[in-house]
Predict the structure of NADPH--hemoprotein reductase.
Amino acid sequence: LTVMGDASMEQTISPPDSTAQQDSFFSMMDVFLISLITGLLTYWFFFRKKKEEVPDLPKMQSVAAPVRDSSFIEKMKKTGRNIVVFYGSQTGTAEEFANRLSKDAHRYGLRGMAADPEEYDLSDLSRLSEIDKSLAVFCMATYGEGDPTDNAQDFYDWLQEADADLSGLRFAVFGLGNKTYEHFNAMGKYVDKRLEELGAQRIFELGLGDDDGNLEEDFITWREQFWPAVCEHFGVEATGEESSIRQYELVVHTDVNMNKVYTGEMGRLKSYENQKPPFDAKNPFLAQVTENRKLNEGGERHLMHLELDISNSKIRYESGDHVAVYPANDSSLVNQIGEILGMDLDTIMSLNNLDEESNKKHPFPCPTSYRTALTYYLDITNPPRTNVLYELAQYATDAGEQERLRKMASSAAEGKALYLSWVVEARRNILAILQDMPSLRPPIDHLCELLPRLQARYYSIASSSKVHPNAIHICAVTVEYETKTGRLNKGVATNWLKNKVPDENGSTSLVPMYVRKSQFRLPFKPSTPVIMIGPGTGIAPFIGFIQERAWLKQQGKEVGETVLYYGCRREREDYLYREELARFHQEGVLTQLNVAFSRDQAEKVYVQHLLKKNKENIWKLINEGNAHIYVCGDARNMARDVQNTFYEIVAEFGNMSQPQAVDYVKKLMTKGRYSLDVWS
């Protein structure tokens, strides 16, 4: 801009100079006439110039040309694909299922590709019929309270607004959900229903996977009926047995610049050394742990409070948001895998996609070492899925072990039962499987290709940014249990966080993190009463809520009733934030503090029992005070029991039937007056 300014000044200055030179030769009239002619010529010149440029305007449409590059239709045509499997995935499972379905296609003389809806223009679905024997499959996970996953949000928005004609589109949907949640498989159900409304043809029934049961079995059962339906529709047959097809090829780097090797970064190389905002899932911020203290005074469990320093990160958060942290696997597990496979884990390698057209060039950041991959990028602690067992079976030299692996990966009832008992219920991870099958020694690169990505873990933030703008607090309990095989399994993230002790130089206490926005929000008006129900670590977001209400009160705002229902096992053992809650109660910020100690007496007392005890006051707050209700914690039992209690209270004091009371509570949810932040 400075250069342009300077140039225009020079042009402005030059006409007076030339006029001064001509004054000696011409009269004022001549000067006037020449100036007029010059002005007209100049005006005509620029006017004509603009007119000449008008025909070039259509060229501006070329700006939209790159959209064609993001057109999955063009890509499918170019690579000879006829099946596209879109995935809405938050934790990687839907993506994994999509990859498995796209690989299946070759068995039927078809070619598939897995696709992230975030990377493509989904309005192109109307053009899919341009491709012979084409089909779109959607593996859609539901996140939170019936929400789409982050990568499917744009697709969801488009579906809601679209009036496209999808009459030529053939589709099928498999949903991934959890029955303990109120809106079970909401996203899968919506996509299935909406595509049909837009004229698309469903070629196989909606699949509903339940992660509270056996998601893997649900998927396999659906898949084994889905492919025969595809064959019947297109008039094709299976070309033979399922075969193992490698998706990536191994490249070992013997002479590599170590500055170009990934050491745990999620996206940009050296992003942990050279941090640049904005911070998100692909560019986490390295926050230093400034406090890590044990919250409980006794018992077998370890409950902890951590504080992460987010100074200078430009990260903003609201009370009720979630903090995502990227953990690391236990080094002893990583070392044992290296030993059992006889590999030097510090070998630098890359796994390169054999499909050059794929957007996904590597299964994880490459080049890197096996040690880094097994520590930061791969999930080595969860029981492997059946497709992993199938692919690994070929490497078992003992016929009995090979047969056992193939059986567990099959769709036969006996195989499913064996997989459920030997892998899922016994909680055998990949190391345990290698230990219990001595002849199974796969190449480490194939194992790295097959294992799913290690996912970020989400925690409800236990602080208010109004009070702690430069810190994020976490409340968590370490997961540790003995399996049926006598092994001690430890939760990846909680045990990793437990060891993040603040030190002087801070190098060992860094946590890669980012913030995920939530709908779990305090009412817009501070004067609105709130009823908070959160036993155990479900107290976390409410510590932030109470801090914020206290801050608002200090600012002179009128703050409504702030009511807490909290529960723990024993008063002297795991009463979390006892001192803080007592202080807030004493100061009058927390108008009611109701605590259920489940194991301090013969009969167990839970939060729902205290709600029933104070039912009249609860109804008054809801009915007259327009109170907002918040529930945080266990989805399987607590959240359901609490909801049933609200049905009872509403029915009794609102003089309603049970169905009317249920409808009343559901309407509170729709209006944002009954919010859940639960997990199973």
User: Anything to note?
Assistant: The domain at 276-327+456-518 is CATH 2.40.30.10 (Elongation Factor Tu (Ef-tu); domain 3).
